[in-house]
Every structure is written in structure tokens, then in C-alpha cells.
Specification:
about 450 residues; mainly beta; 5-stranded antiparallel beta sheet
Length: about 450
């Protein structure tokens, strides 16, 4: 043992070396340390600051060729508006930024007009979204502002600004808790003032492109309200009460700025001229309405919870045809702005279908499972009609390139694109999905419309 101790100097093992030993080489001193003013001067830093800045700027830049998709998503007790960017050249879809909402979203409507503010009598152009939630108020958010915590305007009864919690009180696992709002104040009677806006959830919204200061809203309080965005008061200027149950959907006419289409859970749709609201045409539906659209100046489409889509002539209130489009609720409906008679539907059966309507028999052009779960809405891209976006129950937004379908391209009047991205679906945050399609070119694959019921 003594021999081992002497050999390895164990008796001196715990003794510290003299820091002033002349032979010692200090690890850190002014002579051995080297400083650089910036990372650009440091030869060992290969990722320069400018590279980081350029990368961040590229991620935020929206190019003229990009397509934007607006969606609402709820996860546990957090709800957001999400702005997604679709790059057609690379068939890439990614989230650009999001906005936290105080309540579960029920309806979104893009606005190209900024609401009037104090001292500004006329609306100005903008990039905003109106949001309907389970609250009776309608919030308007600016989509061009990142990391915003308050809407630019609120339509309806009293509203309080966001209140940040005290520092150090933030709960773990919560997203942006400082954006949550204090409870909205109520009237002395304990409910929102019906003369200032809705008194229940806002279920549908429609911006009037021909009359940019007008916004229509549909509510569970059985009313439709018209809002004037052109004055600082942002007041409700008209209330329509022609329905007897919750109002689910509203759509303005594409050429007549005063004509409004409304749909309700009372199993009716109505065409109203807001200049004389007592005069309207009622359209009898077979089930609760899910979505509405103008097919032409004289015809409308209605999708209902039984999976049917019906076409009506508003001049006579007659049903032209009824289509058994889906096996479950037809939740979404969109008409193509560049091709007359072409429309798309989606459903909780997970399918998107594209149709070509004729005088008495719609034809199925293509059907596809986008692998997004149960679908809640679908829309044609106005700039590239062969692109369709949809939102599904799995929390993803998808874009489908239908340019590989000859039937769709023929109906749209565009050339078929036999490209690697043609026919594929990309979801935000995911790779391109492998989906199955069924192009309908024969009679056996068409869904025959049922005859309209007797009056």
C-alpha cells in the first residue's frame, strides 16, 4: 500500500497547486483571451448575424405570387386565427402568423375595407378579418399586424380592452395568457343591449364587396343585422327578423348591393332586399341549412345537414333540383367565380366534391378524400380556380391542386397540368399527402339529384 501511495503521490492528491507558481500557465487571462466586436469578425462563427436577419425577413415576406389561406382553429381552451401562405411553385403551405381569440370562433369574413375611425369619415383599404364567436360582439382584426393583442374595432355592446395578468402569475402550459381578456361588462339588466347589436352567438358574416361599408351578420338570436363600417360609431343600422330560429348563413348578391341571402335552422332560406325588408322571398329547405351561395344572378344553392344541395330560382321560389351530394352533413359550399355552374362541396364524410351544374342535372367531376378528417369548409382560389382549400377536424388546413383532373380543367377552361404537384394535397406543417381520387366521367359515378318534393 505504501509503495502504491508513493508511486502515485496519493498523499499530495488533495493539495492545490500554487496559483502563483511561475511555471503554471493560466487558462484565462488577458493574454490568452481574444475578443471580437461582432460575429462577422470572428473566424470561428460561420453563421453570421446578417444571415439570421435575411432568413427571418424571407420567412415573413409575402410575395406577389403567394396565395393566402385564412382559418380559425381551436385547441383545448385556446382559439386562434391563422394566416397560412401557399407557394404554388413548390406546392408548399406553411403558417405565417396567428392571432389569439377570446372565444370559440364560429365565422370568419375577410374585409378589404378598414373601419372608419374618429376623424375619418370614409373607410380606407385594408387587410382585415371580421370574427364571429359565441360572444354577441363581432371583432375586427388587422391581418397585417404581427403579435397583436387587441382588435381594431368591435361591433356590438360594451367591450373591455385586453388585461395582462400580474408578472409571475403566468400558468405553465398556457399559450399567450397575457392576451386573454377580462369579462365583458353587461348592462344593468344583465344582458347585452339589443339596440346595439346581437344578444347571442354570431354564426355567419358577409362583407358587401359592392358596398364596402356594409357588413351583414347572422346570429343565434334569430336576427340578421347590417352594420355601417363607414362611420366612427360602427353602428347597427338595420335589424332583420324574418326567421324563427337561429340564423346560420348570410350572403350578399354579387351584382345587386341591396339583396341579401339568409339561411336559418327554421329550415328556410330567404332573399331580402334590405331597402324594403318587409318584401322577401322564402325558400323551403328539407333540413337545417349549413351553407349558402349565389349560383347566378337568379339562382341560389343551399347545402343542408342531411347532405343534400338544392338549387332554387329566386324569381319564383321554385326548387330547380336537389342533389344527394354527401352521406352526412354538407358543411361547406363554394362557387367558382371564373366558371359558371362549377361549385364545390365538402362534408363531415371527409370528402370534397367538384360539380358542374346544368339546367336540371349536376354532374360530379371529381371527388377526393383530403385526409384532413371531417371537413367544415371549402373554397376555390379566386386567382387559380383549380386550387381548393379546406379545413378539417384534425386541426389542419389543406390545399388541393385539382389540375390533374381533365374534367375539372375542362369545366374551368384551363389547361390540364400533368405535373408532380397536380392532384396532390398539402396540409400546413405536413408533407404532401397521398390521397385517392375518383374522377367521374361516366353515368354510374354521378350522383343523381332527387326530384323536388311536392309543394
Amino acid at each position: 500500500a505504501d509503495r502504491v501511495a508513493r508511486r502515485f503521490a496519493l498523499d499530495e492528491y488533495d493539495e492545490d497547486e500554487d496559483p502563483h507558481d511561475a511555471g503554471a500557465l493560466p487558462m484565462f487571462s488577458r493574454r490568452t483571451l481574444m475578443f471580437h466586436r461582432t460575429n462577422d469578425d470572428d473566424p470561428y462563427v460561420t453563421l453570421k448575424d446578417a444571415d439570421d436577419d435575411d432568413s427571418d425577413a424571407d420567412d415573413l415576406e409575402i410575395k406577389p405570387t403567394d396565395k393566402l389561406v385564412l382559418a380559425a382553429r381551436s385547441e383545448e381552451d385556446v382559439s386562434n386565427i391563422e394566416v397560412h401562405v401557399y407557394e404554388e411553385e413548390g406546392h408548399n403551405l406553411y403558417p405565417h402568423h396567428d392571432i389569439m381569440l377570446p372565444s370559440f370562433p364560429l365565422a370568419l369574413e375577410w374585409l378589404g375595407t378598414r373601419p372608419a375611425a374618429a376623424g375619418v369619415q370614409a373607410p380606407t383599404r385594408g387587410n382585415l378579418v371580421a370574427v364571429g364567436t359565441f360572444e354577441p360582439q363581432i371583432e375586427i382584426w388587422d391581418l397585417d399586424v404581427l403579435s397583436t393583442f387587441a382588435p381594431v374595432a368591435v361591433l356590438g355592446d360594451a367591450y373591455t380592452e385586453p388585461v395582462a395578468p400580474p408578472l409571475g402569475k403566468k400558468k405553465a402550459g398556457k399559450k399567450n395568457d397575457d392576451a386573454r381578456r377580462a369579462p365583458r361588462p353587461e348592462r344593468a339588466g344583465g344582458a347585452p343591449d339589443p339596440t346595439r347589436g346581437h344578444t347571442d352567438a354570431v354564426m355567419g358574416l358577409a362583407w358587401n364587396v359592392l358596398q364596402p361599408n356594409a357588413l351583414a351578420s347572422a346570429s343565434a338570436d334569430r336576427t340578421v343585422r347590417i352594420w355601417d363600417l363607414g362611420t366612427p360609431a360602427l353602428a347597427c343600422v338595420q335589424t332583420l327578423s324574418h326567421h324563427t330560429d337561429k340564423v346560420q348563413s348570410v350572403r350578399w348578391h354579387q351584382t345587386e348591393p341591396s339583396v341579401l341571402l339568409t339561411g336559418s335552422f327554421d329550415k328556410t332560406a330567404a332573399v331580402v332586399d334590405v331597402r324594403a325588408q318587409s318584401a322577401f322571398r322564402s325558400l323551403a329547405l328539407g333540413a337545417d341549412v349549413e351553407a349558402l351561395a349565389w349560383a347566378s344572378d337568379t339562382h341560389v344553392l343551399a347545402a343542408t345537414e342531411d347532405g343534400h344541395v338544392s338549387c332554387y330560382d329566386v324569381r319564383t321560389s321554385a326548387r330547380v333540383w336537389t342533389l344527394a351530394a354527401h352521406d352526412s352533413a354538407a358543411t361547406g359550399l363554394s362557387t367558382c367565380a371564373t366558371a359558371a355552374g362549377v361549385f364545390a362541396t365538402c362534408s363531415t364524410d371527409k370528402l370534397v366534391k367538384v360539380w358542374k351544374a346544368s339546367a336540371d342535372r349536376p354532374q360530379l367531376l371529381v371527388s377526393r378524400d383530403l385526409q384532413l378528417g371531417a371537413l367544415y369548409d371549402v373554397a376555390f382560389c379566386p386567382d387559380a380556380p383549380y386550387l381548393l382549400s379546406a379545413g378539417g377536424g384534425n386541426g389542419k388546413v389543406g390545399v388541393w391542386d385539382a389540375s390533374d383532373s381533365p374534367a375539372v380543367c375542362d369545366a374551368l377552361g384551363v389547361a390540364s397540368k400533368q405535373t408532380p404537384t397536380g392532384g396532390s394535397v398539402v396540409a400546413s406543417g405536413m408533407q404532401a399527402l397521398d390521397v385517392n381520387s375518383s374522377d367521374s366521367d361516366g353515368e354510374d359515378e354521378q350522383s343523381a339529384p332527387s326530384a323536388p318534393p311536392a309543394a
